[in-house]
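Protein 1 of 2
SEQ + STRUCT:
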Amino acid sequence: MASAQDEAKKPLPPGSSFGRLLGILSDKSYDFYKNPVQFFEKNAVDFKSRIFQSRFLLKPTVFVGSNQGLADVLSDGGEFTELGYKTFMGQIYGDNILFTDGKAAEELRDALSQLFTDDCVKTYQQTIDRIVEKEIQNLDISNPVCLYEFYKKMVTEICLSLFLGLDFEDTDDIYDTITSLTTTHWHGIISVPLALKIPGTGKESTFKQALQAKDKLLEVIKERRETSKKGFHQKLEEIHELDEEAINNHLLLFTSALVPKALASLLTSFSLEVGQHQKVSWQKMCLLDEEFMDQMLLEVQRYYPPFLGGRRVVTKNFEVDGYTIPAGHSIVYLTFAAHRDPSIFENPNQFHPGRWKNSTSDTQKKKLFCFGYLSRGCVGERLVWAIIKTILTSLLKKFELSLVDKQDLSYKWLPVSRPKTDVLFKFTSRPP
């Protein structure tokens, strides 16, 4: 009779149920967190499948890395699954669109979409332009610059200005206070979810500190809503579907570190590609050809999605890309793997913006899950692209970027994708 280990390594036949549970000693959580890309690639070879089972966080878990599998999870997941991180992250963020599924998610998405139409984004553009121009003007290029930190700071200021109406030209104290709170708040996402004191130290756990930061941020949000009667938060108040708690929780989400880190990830990955010596010409091409810029940004999404993926818990038998996953199992879906599915993308491990040149319809673009999918799509995607394109266009018009030689350009994928080290760039002013 085959052992549990042997049985686990067999590819799962279409329509089958899963075999016996693996023992606690075979839990693969450490291997996954140590190097998720290597973990997936090794198991995909061993299982001869981009969908396989293992044991993760002490639960029988199915890892989904096929493009069709990810589409199935994100499009039909609300009916067959519940969000695997709601219990934990819900404490950090409170109830909001991030933790809503099914019909409720669609209704909430429709309501919030009113604030992110093309016309609405145009009204936000003046604030975006002002902050981007100021930050680029004040950029010290006498020494190499860590662009990830530069981008993160700029996007943080944009988000806090747009969503809370804060003006950091008057004082940096507000910025320092809020960014310190958002940093502490963010650390709770990647910590052990226990609100307690660390034995023998008298110090609060990282998770408890995050909950305390959340309360303080909500106090700032409530104060801003009372003192400022214009801007995005006022528009949010006009949505009848949202009560007071929902308004505050969504403002907490929009002003948290989640958005700046995601955008800084995409902006850094773009810069990493165009900053290599053999690709410097891509910078001019982006300025001269809007279509090439779009192709670059599509390929950045595909090759460097900011977030690795997500987790679900199956509530009733669920078919994913031909495999039946029983109720009680967990699903870990991997965006980076779906974006490198060789059945969808030729030479998937090559960064090649030209693959999008002949994409005349949205069919191929729907194979990207960087901003979610259907009812799980990012409600603010239009605003995201307005911010990204404004920053890149403004920066490339003023400077040519080049990577400092002999740096470690390898990536880490958790909690967001970015180079493992603070990769530095040199700036050369372009002639006026």
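Protein 2 of 2
SEQ + STRUCT:
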Amino acid sequence: MMQRAFIAILTFSLGTAPGPFSSGTALIQVKNCLILFLIQVELFSLAGAAPRYICTYYDVVEYLNISSHSKLHAHILPKTDLNKPVEVKMDFMLMAILSVVEKLQTVTFYFVLNLEWKNTFATWNPQDFCNISKVILPMDSYWSPPIFIVERVNGQNPNLDYMSITHNGGFNSTQPFQATLTCSLMIFKFPFDTQTCNLSVASFLYPVTDLVMKTKRTPADMMRDSQSYFLTDGEWKFTNLSIIEYMEDLDDGQFSVVTYMISMERRPTLYILNLILPTCALYLLDMAVLFGPSSLEEKINFQIAIILGSSMLAVILNNILPTSSNRPPVIVVFFLGTFLLMIMAVLDTFLLLHQQHKSLYLDKVLRSFQQDVHTKLTMRTMANQSTKHPAKDSAQQQNLPKKAQEKGQPPKRHWQPQEQDLFLPVLEKVLLYSHFFLSLVFFAIISVKWSS
């Protein structure tokens, strides 16, 4: 309209202006050129070319009325149809398993959560804004899904408080999370265990009639991307990811929940080298001492020292495992069994030592008793002979031991200590071989429990 008015004013002024050009051909040519130029400008503007002053992102924000003081659009659910809920699509990618604390039954994950939703109130025509079809705005500019992680007990809030908005009302927000979650750790087969922890994402402010949360991709695709971007290579290995979508019933309605089930496997090399192999080595050393040729007193000293070393490893294990559990882990049974077998070896050695001392004491008592009896009999015989043959008393006293030695007739003994010594080796063999057989059975049971 302004161009047309300008053409009319310029034509009128040129046609009425005094001078030599008012009725000449030159005036007509100038008028025609100006008219053609202004007609081209008018046609060019009518063709749809956008003016320069709206070719900025700021103009898109002004058009969407985001810069105003009213922030209701940032808090109100963008729902146009009351019978149709807003659908939020989620994409999950696990980046790292930072720590697993068995004592506290917690696990710390670092993951990225991507959310997509539609807002029909935030649309524009890209042709009106120099083909600008996407802008990046803060999270508080428009409504965004309030996310709640059910198992979360601690963690850091995301520091990327921005989202992208497309011209058709599509919103996209990608946020990294470092969250510490509660997880029921099953440590029965520690350190050869596999754990599964749940990460449930929900929005308990809006029921399913207003907001529905769904997964964007399949678990296989999320698993593949997570393994390709996995940052840590520590104690735990990320093995599987499964997803469950369900409705949680609360007092005031149903709410949409998406649960990511993260499966991870422990790498047991460090625990094998630090706990299991040293315990097995100490037990083999205990068996070697038990079957060794040392004296029983030395065996007891070695065995007690080995038990003290095994107790130190048990203290280390106690600092790792949780204080309560439904049933004791296999490694606890392994440590307790080896400890009891070592105690049994000490008791066997004590029994053998007691039997040995008892045999020696009995042999000493019987020897002293035999010597007393033999002395009394000798003195009685010599007294009888002295009364019958007093003249030959001195000669017989000198010749009696020689005759006894020449005839080879030692005093009669009713008990021989050599017969009693045969019981000790038999008892030792029975105890040692029974202990060895019991050890084999115990280690076989532990191996089956760990491998099953």
